[in-house]
Amino acid sequence: MTTRSIPIVDRVTDAFFALDTGFRFTYLNERAETLLKRSREELIGRVMWDEFPQTVETQFPDGFHRAMDEQVPVSFEIYHTHLETWFEARAYPSETGLSVYMRDVSERKAQETTLAQHAAVVEAIRDAVVTLDRNREIVTVNGATESVIGADRSQLVGEHVETLTELAGIDDDDAVEIGRAITDIDIGTAERRQLDLPYIGPDGDDRMGEFRFVPIEDHAATVAAIIRDITDQHEYDRVVTSLHEVTRWLLGSDDPEEICAIAVHSGSDLLDLPISGIWLLDQEHGYLEPVAGTAGAHDEFGGLPRFNPGEGLVWDVFEAGAVELFDDLSETDDLYNPETPLRSEIIAPIGTHGVLMTGSFDPHRFDETDVDLVSTLVENTRAALDRADRERVLRDRTAELERQTERLEAVADILSNDLQRQLEAVADALEDDDIDEWEFPLAENTVETTLDRAERLVDDVREFARNATAVGTRSRLHLESAIADAVTDSQIDENALVVDATATLRADPDRFVRLLETAFDSAAARADDDVTIQIGLVGFDDDGTRGFFMCDDAAEIPPTAHDRVLDPTADDDTAIDGLGLALVRAIAEAHDWTCTVTSGENGGTRVEIRDITTLERRLS
C-alpha cells in the first residue's frame, strides 16, 4: 500500500485494515481503530492473532488463510459480540498481503431475520396463504395451501389468481366476488375484505372456506389472501340454527311422547346420532321408561330397556344431573349390560323429566362439539316438556274446577240435608206438648258425638275444597306404617284393626293416610258400638289386579247404594256417612286406582282399592 492511497482509504466509511503476508497490521483507518478499540500506533507491525486471540475461534483465520493461499477474494459474515453488531468481512489478497473491509450489516441481518420469522410463521399456520402482485399473479404460496385447496406451489406460483379459483372449484359468480375483493384491497378502498364461499376440497368433497384479503408491504406482492377451512364451524352453526327451528316443533306439542320422538329423530337427522333413545321418569313406579328411540336403536337392540333405580350408567347420570361423555365403555364399570356392542356414549339428563342417551359402536366417536349440540337438544326438549307439563296442569285445573263446582254443589246439598234432619228432630221435639218430659233428641249419641260428626263433615268438605283429585310426589310406603298413622287421627282404636298381610306401595304419603283415615271414620260412623276392620291384600293369588281391601262389621251399606255412596253428586239421599267414601274414591282415582264398595261375606261393608301396580307383598 502506498502513502498516496492512504488518505482515500482513510475516508472510506467501512472499517479497513491491511495485513502483510505474516498477518501483521500495516495500516488501519479511523473506522477500524474505532471498531477494534486500538490505535494505529499500538497495532502497526503486530500480528493480528496475537493482539486479538479471540478471533482465532472465528471465521477470520480460515477465511484469511484461504485468501492468501489461493489468492482469491473471500467474504463472510461475523457477529461482534461486544458491539452487538453484524459485520460483513471481505478480504482481497495481493503479493504483499491482504486488504480487509468490514461493513456493518446489522440492519440487513435484522430484516432477514424478521422475514425468515414471518416466513416460518406463514409456513407453520394451518391456513392457506397466497400473495399476489398488482397483475393478480401469484407470488408466494405456503405449504398449507395444498392441504386446504389441494394445489401445490408448482401449480400456482407465477399463475394468475384465476388458476386458484379454478383448481378450488369456485363457481364463476363467487370468483367475480373474489376479484372485486382483491381490487378493493389493492386500490385502498378497503383495509380488509372477507368472503365465506363454498369450494371443493382436496378429496373432492364440498367444503366451506373463509377467504380474507389484506394489503401487505412487499417488494413484489401487494395483496395477501388467507383461506381458512371453516366447514366444521359452518356445519356447527347450521346445526345450531336447525336445532332452534326444531324447538318450534317441540314447543308446538303438548304430548310428552311426541316431544321425545321429535327430539330423538332430530338428533338422528341433524347430529348424525342413529342410535339414540329417550327415557322418562315414571312418577308412579319410580323407574326410567323408554318412550322414544331411533330406528337404528330398535334394529340393533330390538327395543330399549327399562332402568330401575341404581341400574346402569343411565340411572347414575340421571341422578347426577350433568351430561356425561363415555369415550370407551370397555374401560367403564357399572354397565347395565356388560356385553353391549356399544363402545362410546353420551348420556344427557333432560332436567328432572328423564334422560337422552346416544351411542356408537366405535370408541371415541364423540367430541366436545357433540356434547354441546346434545346439550342444546336436551335443553330445548326440557323446555318443551316443562311447557307440556304446565299445559297439562292448566287443563287439569280447568277440568278440576268444573268437577269441584259439581262437588261443592253436592257438598252443599249434603250439608243442607244433614242439618235439615237435625233441625227437624229438634222442631218435632219442641212441638211435643209435654215439655217437661222432653229429652234432647240427640242425647242417645251425646252432644260430643254430634259435634264429632259435624267436625268430620267439615273436614271432608275442606278436603274436597282443596282438590282431592290431585296428588303430590309419590314415594315408597309401608302399608302397615300408613295404617298406624291413619289410626292416630281417626275415630277408631288401633285394637279394632286386623291386618292380614304387610306390603309396600308408591303413593302420596299425606293423601294415602287421609284415604285410610276417611275409610276408618266411615266405618265408625255406621257402627252402633265397637267396630272391627279387617285389612288384607287382593290380586296376588288370583287373576285380578293388585290392591287391598278394608272390611268392617258396622251397619251394612245397602247394595242398592254401593255405587251411589261413592258419588257425592248423586241426586237422592245416599250420603249415609257424609262425604267419607266419596272422598276415599276421589283420592284413589287421583292415584289412578279404582275403588269399589260391596257387602262383606258375613255382613258389614267391604271397600276394595285395586289397580295399585306398585303394590308388593312384604315378608313378615
UniProtKB/TrEMBL annotation:
CDD domains: PAS
Alphabetical list of SUPFAM superfamilies matching this protein: ATPase domain of HSP90 chaperone/DNA topoisomerase II/histidine kinase (SSF55874), GAF domain-like (SSF55781), PYP-like sensor domain (PAS domain) (SSF55785)
Pfam families the record matches: GAF_2, HATPase_c, PAS_4
Gene Ontology MF terms: phosphorelay response regulator activity; protein histidine kinase activity; protein kinase activator activity
InterPro entries assigned to the protein according to its UniProt record, in alphabetical order: BphY/WalK/GraS-like (IPR050351), GAF (IPR003018), GAF-like_dom_sf (IPR029016), HATPase_C_sf (IPR036890), HATPase_dom (IPR003594), PAS (IPR000014), PAS-like_dom_sf (IPR035965), PAS_4 (IPR013656)
Catalytic activity: ATP + protein L-histidine = ADP + protein N-phospho-L-histidine
Listed EC numbers: 2.7.13.3
UniProt domain PAS: residue ranges: 8-46, 114-177
Leading EC class: transferase
Domain of life: Archaea
One GO term of the biological process aspect: osmosensory signaling via phosphorelay pathway
Keyword terms, alphabetized: Kinase, Membrane, Transferase
PANTHER family: OSMOLARITY TWO-COMPONENT SYSTEM PROTEIN SSK1, TWO-COMPONENT HISTIDINE KINASE
Protein name per Swiss-Prot or TrEMBL: histidine kinase
